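Is this the right way to post structure tokens for a design question? Let me know if I should format differently. Anyway, here goes:
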């Protein structure tokens, strides 16, 4: 058996020459509370749990001391109830977040791993969020998943490939970095192309290649996403996916979201303004990416198997080198054309009608998300 969490107390010895013995109340994994036992430290062979216990106690005391002084006197026989309660909650939260992390990695279909971290508060996994890997059309919307033609290139770098057929340049260089300016569409090779999976024009369709961490921010922005590895400039990082809805439905949902203070509507406005992606309930890692007025990710429209220009896929590429541990951000007002919208109701990825204060902290911060 292995302990999940516990709380210590000190028992005084009847002899002055024998030091106090510290005991921990242990909840045994898979067993009811009625089987909890008090165990001396030497019986516990779980250094990681003990370190987490100590860290949680230190964090709690540090947080409380910001408001008022708290000390643990030497004659205390046990932890204060509030401290013990916090430590138990942190342990339960850690278990819940680990289960959520495992679920996310079971659902994702890309190479990059997903990690979850919260060292800020007691917030657990979101209660109404489902991880998906591609667009989820709502009733009445059809996503054609099969291209009608494909290339027969032996080397897509030097022959007339899919981008040329669409009248645009091939988007990538030989280092798999994007070389076209924002606003230019990306046409990748598709399921009908004769080139193989190693074709240099198959980047977005391979999914996220980097290990990313969904983490709780300390600046009041809720959850965010940071990279755990270095990302080169102009590299594909992730897609923005969610439910595909009509613009009319987006208007209706947008009014509801305004009152809840959430921002997940992204207009598919490459050629028209008929459809919107809603990542509020269904989405991938991009659901948790925060806004910045000075972002390190840029939006591009992508066409692969579905060549309907009303329904581009939305890809996020790095605008510069992003170091390991750095938060990933994109501009919620950035259109697929690369322009900043002046009308957040009609064009902004964040279809907001109420002015929302921006907390990005950038030198160039505009003050509001919309």
């Amino acid at each position: 058996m292995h302990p999940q969490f516990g709380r210590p107390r000190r028992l005084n010895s009847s002899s002055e020459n024998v030091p106090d013995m510290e005991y921990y109340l242990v909840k045994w994994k898979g067993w009811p509370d009625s089987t909890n036992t008090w165990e001396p430290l030497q019986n516990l062979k779980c250094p990681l749990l003990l370190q987490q216990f100590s860290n949680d106690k230190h964090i709690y005391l540090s947080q409380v001391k910001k408001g008022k002084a708290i000390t643990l006197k030497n004659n205390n026989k046990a932890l204060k109830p509030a401290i013990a309660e916090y430590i138990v909650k942190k342990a339960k939260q850690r278990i819940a977040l680990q289960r959520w992390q495992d679920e996310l990695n079971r659902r994702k279909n890309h190479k990059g791993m997903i990690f979850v971290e919260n060292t800020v508060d007691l917030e657990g996994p979101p209660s109404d969020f489902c991880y998906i890997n591609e667009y989820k059309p709502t009733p009445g919307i059809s996503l054609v998943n099969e291209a009608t033609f494909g290339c027969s290139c032996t080397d897509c770098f030097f022959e007339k490939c899919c981008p040329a057929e669409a009248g645009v340049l091939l988007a990538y260089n030989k280092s798999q970095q994007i070389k076209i300016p924002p606003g230019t569409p990306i046409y990748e090779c598709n399921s009908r192309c004769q080139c193989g999976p190693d074709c240099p024009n198959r980047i977005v369709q391979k999914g996220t290649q980097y290990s990313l961490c969904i983490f709780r921010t300390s600046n009041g922005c809720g959850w965010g996403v940071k990279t755990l590895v270095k990302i080169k400039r102009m590299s594909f990082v992730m897609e923005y996916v969610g439910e595909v809805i009509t613009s009319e439905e987006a208007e209706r949902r947008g009014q509801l979201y305004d009152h809840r203070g959430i921002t997940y509507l992204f207009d598919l406005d490459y050629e028209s303004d008929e459809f919107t992606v809603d990542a509020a309930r269904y989405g991938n890692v991009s659901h948790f990416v925060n806004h910045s007025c000075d972002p390190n990710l840029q939006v591009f429209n992508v066409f692969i198997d579905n060549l309907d220009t009303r329904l581009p896929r939305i890809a996020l590429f790095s605008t510069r080198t992003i170091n390991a541990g750095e938060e990933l951000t994109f501009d919620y007002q950035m259109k697929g054309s690369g322009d900043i919208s002046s009308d957040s109701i009609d064009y902004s990825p964040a279809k907001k009608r109420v002015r929302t204060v921006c907390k990005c902290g950038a030198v160039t911060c505009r003050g509001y998300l919309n």
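Format looks fine. Someone answered above. Worth noting: Residues 48 and 164 are 56 Å apart (CA to CA). The chain has two domains: 4-12+20-67+79-99, 112-330.
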